[in-house]
Specification:
With 199 residues, the protein is of the alpha+beta class. The chain has helices spanning 13-17, 31-42, 63-70, 75-81, 106-123, 136-142, 168-175; strands at 53-59, 86-93, 127-131, 149-158. It has a single domain, classed as NADH Oxidase (3-Layer(aba) Sandwich), CATH 3.40.109. Bound molecules: flavin mononucleotide.
Length: 199
């Protein structure tokens, strides 16, 4: 299933097509596509070119690591993400490599890298669904994540499936209209809250 954004302006097709479904097809992701996803993340911008991101991933055929990943998700996310052929954790490194000082932009850079990965996924006809609903402490213990890194989110990636395969309540959410706040609420000029004149 596809669910393109109904945007007020014509945007790049990748932006309009990207969305976060919960229905996944069982088809595994081809290894050459997997590499491309992370190559896309690799070429994201970052403060001091520090590249403070890391991804721990498990494909569904790697049953042991996949189950470990699934066990880190909150039950609601397990209910749908268990169909995804790839589950992962997106992780920010806390300190700059060049001086060891705290990197205040590490999570910002991780978000950009992940957004870049997700757009590349869209370009490869894949879908991705990011999740804040996971147990970070469990993830740290399960995957030996060092003190110098912080898991920020989980992600499910795969081919889009049919909404009809989801439980009824999730089917409804899958097909609900996608909504956004108006530009006037977040693009300002002069002072906070003062909408820019071009909006
Ligand atoms: C950081 C982050 C955390 C999220 N956490 C969850 C989650 O735990 N479970 C879930 O079902 N969706 C989660 N989502 C998906 C959002 O609900 C979704 O991106 C939002 O509703 C907008 O929909 P769209 O991505 O299809 O445009 C998360 C998205 C992001 C970026």
């Amino acid at each position: 299933m596809k669910n393109p954004a109904v945007t007020d302006q014509e945007l790049h097709p990748l932006i309009m097509q990207r969305w976060s479904p919960r229905a996944f097809d069982s088809k595994l992701i081809e290894p050459e596509k997997l590499v491309k996803l992370f190559e896309a993340a690799r070429w994201s911008a970052s403060c001091f070119n520090d590249q403070p991101w890391a991804f721990i991933v498990a494909t569904k055929d790697d049953t042991v690591n996949y189950q470990k990943m699934l066990d880190c998700l909150v039950p609601f996310n397990v209910s749908w993400a268990q169909a995804a052929p790839l589950l992962g954790l997106v992780i920010a490194q806390k300190n700059f490599k060049h001086n060891g000082k705290p990197n205040a932009w590490g999570e910002y850079d991780l978000g950009q890298a992940t957004a870049t990965l997700v757009l590349q996924a869209t370009a490869l006809d894949l879908v991705a669904h990011q999740m804040g609903g996971f147990d970070a402490d469990k993830a740290i213990a399960t995957f030996d994540i060092p003190e110098t890194a912080r898991p920020i989110a989980a992600i499910a990636i795969g081919y889009a499936g049919e909404a009809s395969n989801l439980p009824a309540e999730l089917q409804e959410r899958e097909t609900a209209p996608r909504e956004r706040q108006p530009l006037s609420s977040f693009v300002f000029t002069g002072k906070w809250g003062s909408t820019s004149p071009f909006i």
